[in-house]
């Protein structure tokens, strides 16, 4: 059998571990061949490939990023070029395609599947916002890096009696903020799922200092936003896909807090460090298992599916279901913050 | 309400995070008080306590170990002294006891519960061998440390064309070995659940070098043991609880391998570093959620239960069920190693 | 004898380790007492103190920040209030003062010394810009964090064929940028000591991509600035001490590069994470030795001096000499970048 | 010009960074070629080589180990085969040889130099026992790993009121033990330079527990040994070079302590993890600078020398002087432990 692999969307720790796992499983279990498409869907559109054998994936387990490269392609272009992609797959004799990516990539995978291409998807998102799977690889690494950084910021804030706001990733879902906030003992965690009230944030800050506490650490998801009418957020405009940009919510909230409370506020935007470098052991295991089970599914003819973590097991779910909605933080998980806020 | 807390069994990253979470939740949600018993069940037997308020748990989230201390007590002693323990609890007006510990601690908790004491247990085990919960805190930290160490050993083994055996924790269950082996790209993983055949291990080593590979990394759970008749393991005798000691299986296997294959073999026993130090972000979140939900259950009168991770949610399971058996590595999880062995 | 201690200026990993070392040495070697002044010189001006005995410094070795707190005070205020500070020192019976801090703190220490107060200074600067000592504690930690972050950014840049600019600390001296750039394999390192030519930077970027290289990592000290006439840097104005602010040089250079080369550029500002958290082992040893030798000097009557690392030994140098000039990167050290640029 | 490179002796973080630096400097500054000999002197004896260009060293900066491999060769064999080695060097047109290694490698380098071969040595030793240089690369990484491990062991020891002995590397010199002991707050540090008195060690342990301290951490260099008559150390025999083996001093001391004091003692032998994995930023910078300056010296005809760190500068010292004696811990450095012991 001949398997095609591509990695779509943004960089994510564990992508290389998945690629290695697919290749090793295909080779060891089935004697199958694997062909990589370069730079995500673009490589499939433009027929740019690289053969992947066991030697080619040596050392990939611990390396961040994706050796196949990745690039974003507008969904409408993908939709328009389905026939072209099917041609390329046919030319190379690809029996099953394993696309690894986030919402966009999996939606495209679903379209291909609907168009008759055998596909097994592998979910990838730092933000943990893909539905129908407990977790995706990359998320644990991102939370782990954010936590380590916030651990470090505590001591600076303490020594100078400051408010420190840390902006973490998460445009539409606050999972990284929630987990890093819990893990690093933040006094305040703001997520996109629940608009914040600036008055309340000010009150929390003031109360902590009034009680004699030495500092305040706030974790702010990049997609967090104020309750209408409580604070004006400068508009970041729309990005290339027509999504509204939330640029610099932490910075703007910091300025507002400083003005309203008179306390010294500093802001740190963690940015790309959250998505780079070697994956945590958790993500390496999850990525390896995803690759393994996707390759088994590919060979067993269970197509149009996505691998998913359910408890301790790797399961298959229909791609259609997986891309139907984003997985955002539930009210019960939001409620867990209460005892640790303030 | 008045909550009692104690930590039993071996040290484990996240214990302090649980204690903090119990105290913060009891205080913030319910205005309840928390009393800590020192050195596990011994503190309850000998009436040694320490009051735990929010100030007392400040800074505990990131600290390894247990601020309450821990000591092992023989189960029969606990059984014999149930009345004494009930007296101490009554003296202090404890409404619910929250014991945090492994199989032994939870079994004692179950006994107390049967004897009429309101109890909510919190599972703790580096080895991940407690049943009825997907995971316990401490396990991710142990796997993470073992993985980092094995990452480091790869380069030494490569540079000198050696076999390197790394002994990790896991007397009865091979979870740490399995996950660290997958995460660190071990060529060989030996677990207690599946006796190893020394011949096969030798064959694997020889084949790798014959293929031109530069080195072999083997991960060996401390409870791994050879198939009867394939190798003599020196007997470690029985420990204080009557369990057979498996001392130094990696060292002994290493000597055997060196003799049989003529290759240079080195052994590293990771030991206590796997259970110390600051918990990973994953374990901090899990420990915090366990403490939170155990305290809620304590206040809601849901006793005789243990908190458990099920998928992404924290659930309650009867203590009786949780201690009925050890959770060992399943055949399907063992099978996952195949594509990554050799 | 009675020793006073204070920590001035910005937060720095190792401050707590110095405090612990001073207290342990004073106590163990001399049976002397130590009194801490809170929030730097402000604590001395306002007579806010805290007694420091061996129990009080337990656990400080590994903790970032300063348990004494720190605050910046304008130099002219210090100068004006010398008599007031001498009074407070006399009231508490302080025989020798050990101020720990950067250029500002050591200049104030020199003034006090000139005014007859026995003083032994301990140099502290993340930026490594204090003269007459090979190194100061905090620098190794900052370089180490920056390097780890840049290691992570490599994989993201590679996967997306980007230019990534990382802004690190260093207003007047490029030591952090130089060392982190060397340690993390940056393709470009910009420091305050040598204004950069935007044309050349563009050429380097273009050449790398033309050669088929996958990405460019540039490390930019916050005080780096363009050659006059090659690029307009938005003026950050003056800060509260009348120093020119260099805000966002990396961000501005990134925009310029993107426009001129057409390549995708991302910018990360590391910020406060560089100065927080537990010190590296190197900084813990250096901080401990500084504290030890400063306390010995205090008891041996060698005042008006600063401890300094010279090769492998801790030496004393006159405060006057130490504060005469900033230590910037030398031309020979700058030249070392050449083989690793591009 | 044509440069030969080889790496001798044990694995050491930074070796690959030196190789990369030599190749980049030779290529960028001088347009010279570099040839690597495989597996240390053995590659030179047996004429096994690998060409090293800039592409071949890509990614080596952060990788532990040595891509050239390393093997130990008995000094007498090297001495006997000098003519053979000169022939191989001549065959390949090597103008200067840059051997990277410890005492053995540098002694061989000196012999070659005396025999008329242009040589520039680069010192390498985890143990930091090479004379005439302030430090060598690898040492900071080893201390850093040992410190991190001891940090972790503190919490286990605290929670169980134990004595924990940690055996670190250092057969003839106690530098790693001294620095890791200072950095990790050990209560006891034993080094080869000063035989220990078991009575005193017992007294220290007993005093700490009598004072109410929760635990004792002891750092023991593998070459530490008892004062004659105070304790019998089982003899490890001689190794292949006729050196006395000190096997398991920490384990044996632990048994003795347990017996004499009645306290629970645990022993951890860090072993190979100290010499593997990615180098610290400090070691990457030092390794890079050593490679750079050795290559410059090679081209400037300054042969028979070794590069050395002196303060902040890289200097050259005659190989003859560098190998005349081992650099052991000085009495003044040993004295620095006093305030931190107990």
UniProtKB/TrEMBL annotation, chains A, B, C, D:
Domain Phosphofructokinase: 2-295
SUPFAM superfamilies: Phosphofructokinase
GO cellular component, one term: 6-phosphofructokinase complex
Residues reported to bind ATP: 10, 72-73, 102-105
Enzyme class of the recorded protein, top EC level: transferase
Catalytic residues (positions): 127
Cofactor(s) for this UniProt protein: Mg(2+)
Protein name, as recorded: ATP-dependent 6-phosphofructokinase
Native species: Blastococcus tunisiensis
């Amino acid at each position: 059998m001949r398997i095609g692999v591509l990695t779509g969307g943004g960089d994510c720790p564990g992508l290389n571990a998945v690629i290695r796992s697919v290749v090793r499983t295909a080779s060891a279990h089935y004697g199958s061949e694997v062909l990589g498409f370069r730079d995500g869907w673009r490589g499939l559109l433009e027929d740019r490939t690289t053969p992947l054998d066991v030697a080619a994936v040596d050392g990939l387990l611990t390396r961040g990023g994706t050796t196949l490269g990745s690039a974003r392609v507008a969904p409408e272009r993908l939709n328009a070029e389905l026939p072209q992609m099917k041609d390329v797959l046919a030319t190379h004799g690809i029996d099953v395609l394993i696309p690894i990516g986030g919402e966009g990539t999996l939606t495209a995978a679903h379209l291909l599947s609907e168009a008759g291409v055998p596909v097994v998807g592998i979910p990838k998102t730092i933000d943990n916002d893909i539905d129908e799977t407990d977790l995706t690889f990359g998320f644990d690494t991102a939370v782990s890096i954010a936590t380590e950084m916030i651990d470090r910021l505590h001591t600076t804030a303490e020594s100078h009696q400051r408010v420190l706001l840390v902006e973490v990733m998460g445009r539409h879902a606050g999972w990284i903020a929630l987990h890093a906030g819990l893990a690093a003992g933040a006094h305040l965690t703001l997520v996109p799922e629940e608009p914040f009230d600036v008055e309340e944030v000010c009150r929390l800050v003031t109360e902590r200092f009034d009680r004699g506490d030495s500092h305040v650490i706030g974790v702010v998801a990049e997609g967090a936003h104020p309750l209408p009418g409580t604070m004006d957020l400068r508009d970041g405009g729309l990005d290339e896909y027509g999504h509204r940009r939330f640029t610099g919510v932490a910075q703007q909230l910091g300025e507002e807090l400083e003005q309203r409370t008179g306390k010294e506020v500093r802001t740190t935007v963690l940015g790309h460090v959250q998505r780079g470098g070697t994956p945590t052991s958790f993500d390496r295991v999850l990525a390896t298992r995803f690759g393994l089970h996707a390759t088994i599914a590919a060979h067993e003819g269970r197509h149009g599916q996505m691998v998913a973590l359910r408890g301790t097991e790797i399961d298959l779910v229909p791609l259609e279901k997986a891309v139907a909605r984003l997985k955002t933080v539930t009210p019960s998980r939001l409620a867990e913050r209460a005892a640790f806020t303030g």
